[in-house]
Specification:
alpha/beta; 6-stranded mixed beta sheet
């Protein structure tokens, strides 16, 4: 991993800017779920992971309470992650169809995965100030990916915050719409590809299916040319 990303990740892990989130993470780490009662929870902000030279970035909102906050890696150890990595595997982006823990030998093909918010918020609803506090981490992280070609955002909040970064950086005024699978161009040849979030609710209500997700990532891979 690049030394700048390593330094950023250490700063993220040690961050305590948001008292509400620090308190909530402590509650999760100490109370735990029954099925994970004997595990040691990560219980800290969760940094992104993947190669600095990645051509594809996958952006979520925040780590799950008993997923990333438990395991220490985004989209790892929860149902949304199970669905996501099954899709990535079928699209030829992940070497495994699952993401269980930091020692599962997971490898990504030219892909970096991270969240807008590095800490889990109560009810999965971050406050505006919490998003602002975390925005510098996300902005820096994404701008370190110099070979980035395609960004897939999982859910509308991730899409809105990601596009906000590029609107500020490049002063773009074009309208960007949250439409699943719609290819939209950003400055410097970047492409943004919105996706519904792979949450159990969205899957169970058939807003998104495994086939839809696999096809979206195949499209992203082709657009990124890897």
């Amino acid at each position: 991993m690049n030394i700048r990303i390593e330094s950023l990740n250490k700063t993220i892990i040690n961050c305590k800017k948001c008292p509400r989130l620090v308190k909530f993470i402590h509650k999760i780490r100490t109370e735990k779920r029954k099925q994970n009662i004997n595990e040691t929870y990560w219980g800290k902000p969760v940094p992104g992971f993947g190669n600095i030279n990645s051509k594809l970035a996958i952006i979520g909102l925040a780590p799950a309470a008993h997923g990333g906050t438990r395991t220490g890696r985004a989209f790892t150890g929860d149902k949304s992650g199970d669905f996501l990595f099954k899709s990535l595997y079928e699209a030829g982006i992940s070497n495994n169809p699952y993401s269980k823990n930091l020692n599962d030998n997971l490898k990504l093909n030219s892909t970096y995965i991270t969240n807008i918010l590095k800490c889990v918020p109560p009810g999965d609803k971050p406050l505006r100030q919490e998003l602002i506090n975390c925005s510098n981490f996300f902005d820096t992280e994404i701008l370190y990916l110099k070979k980035l070609k395609v960004i897939v955002t999982l859910g509308k909040v991730a899409f809105d915050n990601c596009t906000s970064l590029y609107k500020k950086k490049f002063l773009i005024k074009q309208k960007l719409s949250f439409t699943h699978g719609k290819v939209q161009n950003l400055p410097n040849g970047l492409i943004i590809l919105p996706s519904y979030h792979p949450s159990p609710r969205n899957v169970n209500t058939k807003l998104i299916s495994l086939t839809m997700m696999i096809n979206l990532f195949k499209k992203a891979k082709n657009l990124a040319k890897f």
